[in-house]
Amino acid sequence: MEKFRDSIQNKITANHKNIFIKQIQYGKMKKILLVASLGVLFMSCEAQSQGTNNQEAQAQSSSSEGTYKILSAAEFEKAMNKDNITIVDVRTPEEYQNGHLKTAQNINYFDSDFQEKMALFDKEKPLYIYCKSGNRSGKAGKIIQKMGFKEVYDLQGGVSAWSGALEQ
To answer: Which of 88, 131, 140, 152 is catalytic?
Structure first.
């Protein structure tokens, strides 16, 4: 009977050791997961920070192809009062008809002949572009700059950020 009891106690002790070892391993695993999670979080924050720096760099770029710069609504409005500039609304004709900036011409970014229409403008003359939010005009600005326009200015936030009057 004693042997049976000793045998059971040894099994219980062995089971407790296994449970204790598993708890230690689980604790280590939790620490590893925590460290890994913090590493991923740190890397994503770093990547986001670099993305912000890339956006700032893209907001103003100069190259042999010319200058592309994003302007605030106040800067854009001030520039509109200058002589010898071209203002292009790259939204759809329907959006343009619902309200556009004074003297803006409508060249739809989505049209298949967008580049052909843009090529008709004087590349030496400052070109001011905008859309609804700044997305399309940002894409258009890069294309226009590559086409050889010397100065391309984009309205930050598009017409949605514009507080001035719109023409119908």
So the answer is: 131
The encoded tokens of residue 35 equal 């460290």
- Does 45 qualify as catalytic in the annotation? no
Helix or strand (DSSP H, E) at 136: helix 135-146
Query: Half-sphere exposure (CA, 13 Å, Cβ side) for 90?
Result: 29
Q: Can you tell me whether residue 89 is helix, strand or coil?
A: strand
Q: What is the DSSP letter of 158?
A: G
pTM for the model? 0.64
> pLDDT tens-digit profile of 81-124?
888 899 999 999 999 999 999 999 999 999 999 999 999 999 99
Q: How far is CA 30 from CA 18, 19, 38, 140, 147, in A?
A: 18, 16, 12, 49, 56
Cβ-based neighbours of 88, under 8 Å, separated by 6 or more: 104, 105, 106, 107, 118, 121, 127, 128, 129, 130
